[in-house]
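During the reporting period the student researcher (J.K.) took over the structure-prediction task from the postdoctoral fellow and processed the backlog of single-chain submissions. One of the processed entries is reproduced below for the supervisory committee.
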Amino acid sequence: MSEAADVIVVGAGLAGLAATAELVDAGKRVIVVDQENADNLGGQAFWSFGGLFFVNSPEQRRLGIKDSYELAMQDWLGNAGFDREREDHWGRKWAQAYVEFAAGEKHSWLAQQGLKLFPAVGWAERGGYGANGPGNSVPRFHITWGTGPGLVEIFAKRVQAGVDRGLVTYQWRHQVDELVLTDGAATGVKGTVLEPSSAARGITSSRTGVGEFEFSAQAVIITSGGIGGNYEMVKKYWPKRMGAAPKNMLCGVPAHVDGRMLDIAESSGANLVNRDRMWHYTEGITNYDPVWPKHGIRILPGPSSLWLDATGKRLPGPLFPGFDTLGTMEHIVKTGHDYTWFILDQKIIEKEFGLSGQEQNPDLTDRNIKLVLERIKKGAPGPVEAFKQKGVDFIVKDNLVDLVTAMNQLSGENLLDYNAIENEVTARDREFDNKYSKDAQVTAIHGARAYLPDKIARVAPPHKLLDPKAGPLIAVRLHLLTRKSLGGLETDLGSRVMKADGTLFEGLYAAGEVAGFGGGGVHGYRSLEGTFVGGCIFSGRAAGRDAASRI
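J.K. obtained the following structure tokens:
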């Protein structure tokens, strides 16, 4: 099979849709190639919570949040920790460009296309170190009304307009195996036509080939995603600074997020940087109704749960729930165990447990105001309660003795000493006798409630875990959860791929996670959150616009 177009886009995820939408606006002919079936349009972004990073947004201002480009840039740089001269060269430039975008036209540009946001702004990655250290100084996590599917819909509609005009052709079940080069420039792709699949979105599909294809174009844009669904690749590039890779991790993305195109592009001469920078989560729970293998869901925690390692030792400050994902990951891996524990109570779970992913938030995904209002009623949100009742990682008991006994039984390792945990819980509880405390986590809880949306809907009133009125007690076993790769194909600000010698790879572009969301590492070592789907949009837009201008 042979076909030609102006541009080939490899990957029908959010970055690919954003790039294609820009090409359609410029009247270019596009072939969109994807190894999955049409039900997977939108890729990984479809499964996301749809969180977006904005700076000095109308939503922030309405809540009295004082944000600015300068403060956001301070936070980004403190979070990223850029420390590599060559590998971080373009990442730094992308960081400045993206924060300018987030503080500038991003909000109005997306609003013009139909984006609507939930009015409460979330406060992710709170840091807890210092003004120049990691973390967000203010809440910046804006939830898309409609979550990931709502965000995908915006760009899918623009691309569909191109299909209707005869400009765009989707080639589903086409797996790219090779870039076609002409005089060193990317001029097409070759690969395997996979057998038809009726597998539902996210379900692992067949890789049996039934034919071959070759498509030609004046430019190729790679938007194939990261490596989170390929644990062997995660282990291969696991950062040495963190020691040995965990033996077990849950998977936070479908199996098709396999990283294949990274090696294919590199073998053709593209430069890959920062492959040891990754963004995995520490609060994973086993999905009782899995879609893909080892399917894990991330808890989006409030700050009140007591966090213990596998041996029962409390995690040190500021490694509190929701404060520093990377720092917490590094600490956990060095313990030699790949799981930890939350100890909390009914009062905390009702207010502080959110679940990442569109399918775990049907009220926001379905844009159902009535369901949203039920979040403030007594009782845990429906999806959380379902995990509490059905999830293998949840334990509910009326007293601490029975709770710790069940925790040891669940792990099968008998590592937890009741007396030590009882002492930790009791000492923590004494710190709630006053509205101030020497315990940094208790102080953080009081501080979080100074932000009105957190006080209303996100942070439980300060109280003692052993208060019978707050019970029953709950323990949750938390697994490490694969999610994002922060490094990838090195690109300039036009999303044009670079070669190892620093020259441009003619005709080749990359956007989204495969490009480290821009430049091969716009986040550095850490994400401020809400920056992934936004990074797909921004880098995809840049790729589409630059390619259109040169064809």
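The committee noted the following: The chain has two domains: 5-224+486-550, 281-481.
J.K. will present the remaining backlog at the next meeting.
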